Amino acid sequence: MYWSKNKLKFVLLLFFASNILISSKQLLANSKGIAPPSKKKIALIIGNADYKGARLRNPIQDAKSIEDQLRDVGFEVKRLENSSLREMSEETREFGKKLRQVDVALYYYSGHGIQHNNTNWLLPVEADIRREQDIEFEAFNLNRLLVEMEGGTKNRVNIVIVDACRTPPTFRSFRNITNGLATPSTQPKGTIIAFSTAPGTVAHDGTGINSPYVAELIKYIKTPGMKIEDMFKQVRKGVVERTSKMSHPQVPWENSSLVGDFYFVEKKAANEDRTRWVEIRNSKDKRDFESFIREFPDSVYKEDAISSINELDREQINNQSSDDYYDISFRSFFGVYNVIDMKIGENLGAGLFHVLWNYEDEDTKVQENGYSIGLILSSWLDTFKQFKDNCYSCDGPSFGANFGTGRVDFGTLKGSKVETGVTVLGLGIFYQWMWPNRLSIVLGGTNVLRNFSILNESYVTDETENVKTHINRRIKSRSDFLPVILFGYSF
């Protein structure tokens, strides 16, 4: 084909113009913070804990913690709790269908797991295994998952995380049961398999909210620019430190057939740390600075963030030193009610009327996980100092019906030392013979029970524990309530 000079010039000009236009659009998108199309990432998370006779403490919360982290970094997550064999099988099959169209597929399991004849089996909560022969009928074969991960998207990354090396006591007599899990016999290309402990060894169920493994894992998932292999190294280091004083330290293990680098969070763009630092540098919430350090561990502003954290800690101690602390909690047949963390000058009252009239107010009702903070329901009650004085004076005899008891904890915080006094109150409809006070009038009468009187105590908190957290823990551990009905004369 013959092209004229002018036509050739026009084509070349059009070519360069189109490239300049495309580059300009990309540059504009980057300047506005518009990211390129994100990768498709899915996860199946299973936490099994409610085993009959072999219940585990952490798997449910572990599964929730992992879900939160993965959602934050762009995963579409399906989470199962206390699942049956049928649920595990069906959801794994569906997971296998979906992963063929995605870029990253992650499978996480926490619960009981066993190694039988060099094969790894994950246990559903309703597994009824009385003989070794039952295992293949009642448990989930981990190899089924690995087979599902074969094929599909060419460059897909498969991640398998198993925190399941806890052998139930009833299985220890089985001849072909081995401690821990086995090295997988199959591993698809582009897959990394992580066990919470090395093959042939047993993992620990944690004493805290999470297992030792997950407690470390959730520290690093959202760290920008950290390769997955480096992340698991940090997890291993942390778990070994956490379990070093146990009878057998736990050493996490991984095996990888990845052919490229994988990051849960890509490395931050240049100057992104500066932008973030400008946003938070005047914050009064130290969590902002802690998050900054995790996101930008190599930032030039890291030391400034650490200094800000230390300064906020000092301010907190100074504030605590000048504040009076008190806690009021009441138990009746309607439930337990509580007010905490109020200071001098604030009115008292949250929850008191609920004890008498059973008004609905979940904000003041104590939940399973401890005390909750209520709102002020009445301005009739006086300040903390006046109330404290009244508690000392309202110990006269009374008579009537006592259908609940309460307690007041008050004291002064001075650095890490706490001086507290505890007063236990009888609540009910009383005729107050002596020293009526504002509180007794509102409640229809109250008295300090002489047999509990004033329980004074002083103690020093653990250095790593927040003062108020420490007090609340002490309060919860005491049993000064008298959940009974008393009729007649009371002193």
TrEMBL record:
<dbReference type="GO" id="GO:0004197">
    <property type="term" value="F:cysteine-type endopeptidase activity"/>
</dbReference>
<dbReference type="InterPro" id="IPR029030">
    <property type="entry name" value="Caspase-like_dom_sf"/>
</dbReference>
<dbReference type="Pfam" id="PF00656">
    <property type="entry name" value="Peptidase_C14"/>
</dbReference>
<dbReference type="InterPro" id="IPR052039">
    <property type="entry name" value="Caspase-related_regulators"/>
</dbReference>
<feature type="domain" description="Caspase family p20">
    <location>
        <begin position="39"/>
        <end position="166"/>
    </location>
</feature>
<protein>
    <recommendedName>
        <fullName>Caspase family p20 domain-containing protein</fullName>
    </recommendedName>
</protein>
<dbReference type="InterPro" id="IPR011600">
    <property type="entry name" value="Pept_C14_caspase"/>
</dbReference>
<dbReference type="InterPro" id="IPR001309">
    <property type="entry name" value="Pept_C14_p20"/>
</dbReference>
<dbReference type="GO" id="GO:0006508">
    <property type="term" value="P:proteolysis"/>
</dbReference>
